[in-house]
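Could you show me just one protein sequence together with its fold in token form as a worked example?
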Amino acid sequence: MQKDFHYYATYCAATLAGYSHEESLDLCWSAQFVDLCSLTLLRRLNAPRSAATTQLTMEMADARTDLLGLQDITRIWASFHFLPRDLYAEKKDSRRLYRHKYRLICGPNSPLVEDTVELAKGSSLQAAGIAMHVLADTWAHSNFAGTPSLVINNTDDYFYELLPDGTRKKITFRHSTGKPDDLEAGLYTNSLYQPDEVAVMNLGHGRAGHLPDYSFMRFAYLPAWGEYREIVKDNPSDYLHAFCQMIEALKYLRGERESFARERYDREAVAPWEEEIRGILEKRQPDACADWKAFGEKLSGREVEAFDVAKHEKEYLDAGGTEAREGTFLGEFFLAALRQKSMVTAKIYRSGNLLAGLSVDYAEKGFRGIRDFRALLREMRKEEPHD
């Protein structure tokens, strides 16, 4: 997904869930920041490096693809953008390494989605925003995995857009990053084909370009992991499910719902606006920011400010000392990011899958990067029950 959904549509969902204008802005800012909190940014702020929730293109170009490098990539992308659907999925007659990659394929309504929402319960708006980013991406990024893998994430020449009139339009991919996608001609930019199984170009939905990120897109393709049987991806339907599920989750986080459960969507809150929402989702455009922004302002009666990545930097940089920084807006975001990454990595590790490396939960003194988790460990100790 892109800024149109992670920022503006998340603002709309938060407003419909009962959050105030100011709370909704903090929440959706955090959801969008997940796509921007890179190692480069963290180094500039002298912030915890392990709180990275994404990797920039230039960082990926220099990324190592040895064991440790691949584990670092997987920790980030599986935790925040391609949450695994089933860590214990079986694949008949498959080798262990392939089965482990197969188990990282993303999809909605997984046990990890419940874990993600529960982790944000009783925590900060930043944690709620991160959870909404992760939840929404399970719908958009379904069928791709957050680990470099040609056999899982590659696409082939069989790729068609399914048009509203029932016809199919051939999609042609090209590796031309300087040119925008040509929707009318069916020309889309994707990552460069690399035959190496673990090349970074084979991460996530790179081989399918931005098609999973366009809410209007319906497409059919033949993934290798699916034995080359056709899969149809209906983004307008998936994005509407994501929107309704975000409202349901946010009402739970606010305390309006007693529990959060998979496959439960707040269609009642959406019903008065469903036609307008469907119109935004179905509109054939690469960027729906303006439409979601206008809808959000109609809902709240307030102006939805443009996303500013540097909005909270001064507060963080001006805070004196490590613990003072932890109490700032960005400090709370970094803590929530460490929580999410630690939780997902622990679940992957406990399933017997080492593709995301060791969990910090299992790390002993001296484990590389443990200093970044001191704030998290302190927070965990605070939450432990006392006699």
Notes: The chain has one domain: 3-146+237-383. The longest strand covers residues 159-162. The two ends are 46 Å apart (CA to CA).
